[in-house]
Every structure is written in C-alpha cells, then in structure tokens.
Amino acid sequence: MTADAIHVTVEMPPITRTQLALYGGASGDHNPIHIDIDFAKKAGFPDVFAHGMLVMGLAGRVVTQAVPLARLKSYAVRFAAITQVHDRLTVEAREVGTVEGGTDRRLEVIVRDQNGQVKVQGEAVMSAD
Amino acid sequence: MLDRAAIGRVLPPVTATVERGRLRFFLNAIGETNPIHHDAAAARAAGYRDCPIPPTYLFCLRMLDAPDPYTLIDDLGIDLGTVLHGEQGFTYHQPVVAGDEIRFIARIADIFDRKGGALEFLVEEIRVERVSDGAHMADIRQVTVIRNPIPGGAA
C-alpha cells in the first residue's frame, strides 16, 4: 500500500422523510414503501425506510470525493440492512489493494448506522492514474 | 414462486435523456455539490463533454423514463410490498453527460431462491448504450429480493 492510500470517513446528516420524498421524485423510484407509512405498515414494516439507492448514492458521493469520477471503473454494493428514517449514516471508503493481476486500485465501501450496523457494503475500482 | 422460464428474457428497451434540471434535483437529493455535476463550464474544464452524471444515476434514468418502472415486477406477478433491493453494481466504460440520450437493454440473467423459497432473487443485467452512435457506456447488474410469505419459511 502506498503512503497516499485512500481512507476517508464521512458522517452524513440524519435521514429525513423529506429526503426520502425528494429522492423518490428525483430518482423515479416511486415505490410507496419509501413514502407512504400506511403502505409500509401493510407490507409488514414499522415505518417507511430509505431507498437502498439513496444510501448507495450518498456513499458514491464519498467515493467520488476521494477518486476523480473519470477514473472510476466500477462501483457495486450489497444491501445488508434497511436504513430507517433518522438513521445517522457514516460512509467509510478505504483502499484495500489492487485488482488481482492488474494495477487498478480497489476501495472497500462500507455504510454503517449510529449503532455500527452495516447497511451497505461494496467495492469501487479505480484506474491507477 | 417466479416462473423460471423468464430467465433469459430480454426486456423492451428503455430510452432516457439526461436532462439538466432533472439531474439537479437528484444532485440536491444526495447532497452532491461538486461543480462538475452542476456547471457545464466546470465540467468542460475538467475534461468532460458536459456535466457527468454521478455514479448511481444510471439506475434512476431507467426508472425515470420507463413507461412504468414496475412493469417487470407486475408481469412476474410480484407484490411490490415484498420487494427489497439486494445488490446493485455498475461498470463504467464512458462518462454519460447532460444531454446524452441513452438506451437500456435489460435481460433477466437469473432467478433463484433461498431458505426454502422464502426468499427469491431476480438478477437483471443491463447494457447501457448511447443512442446517437451505439457506444457502449456502461453495464449494470442488479438483484431484487422478493420476500415470499411461505408457511414454514424463514421470512
């Protein structure tokens, strides 16, 4: 690992209902499970919850602060747990080495809530320069 | 249970345009303030043709411009309230920028289940190409999880 290996941790403001509504409109994801508490309860959830793609988008913002967008080759995540309204997310992007057999650099991306529960875990790959 | 015969099905293509105003709504929703996304001059100074979209916006463009983003969910007989997003991945070949018209060609790559059918997984692979010249812009892979209310199931 080089001395300038990337390791950033960014705390996000708490997730709000307004943010879910704005994200729903802006993303075209109008699934009522994120907006309509009646629908969410009927589906067996205690409340509406955040779009996974909102969380991936917030984490992506951290990735592209650390890595120029033009060098980003891939970005993939697994959604490990639901993000609730009022959750305070922390995004950590940490360089973990190179892609096997090449020079592309790998960043591990993890989003946790205020209790340390992992919400999203993934990897971004960036070209070496 | 989902019909496994759907594996391999190619879905009707969706065409979407990267509209500047709509992009701004998205940038605001995720709190992205980098000028290259907001200001065409800043984008050009950084070497882009125009404002590039953030890494996850391709997912949104397909939903924004599909006639009905839940057509596949409906066609497969899935109750939207049982759906969770399992995985999402993007591989980028060229930056997509404001003004680009792009086409999404999706294929159902796999359907499988776990926990005795209590959880089903729908895997889509999507090629993204530019309409004007057919350039291959990106590839998308996404996994939708369906929670089936099966007696004795784990869900």
TrEMBL record, chain A:
Residues 14-102 form the MaoC-like domain. Pfam families: MaoC_dehydratas. This is MaoC-like domain-containing protein. The lineage of its organism: Bacteria, Pseudomonadati, Pseudomonadota, Alphaproteobacteria, Geminicoccales. It comes from the Bacteria. Gene3D superfamilies: Hotdog Thioesterase (3.10.129.10). It comes from Tistrella bauzanensis.
Automatic annotation (TrEMBL), chain B:
SUPFAM superfamilies: Thioesterase/thiol ester dehydrase-isomerase. InterPro entries: FAS1-like_DH_region, HadA-like, HotDog_dom_sf. It comes from the Bacteria. Residues 5-130 form the FAS1-like dehydratase domain. Signal peptide: none annotated. CDD domains: R_hydratase_like. This is FAS1-like dehydratase domain-containing protein. It comes from Tistrella bauzanensis. The lineage of its organism: Bacteria, Pseudomonadati, Pseudomonadota, Alphaproteobacteria, Geminicoccales.
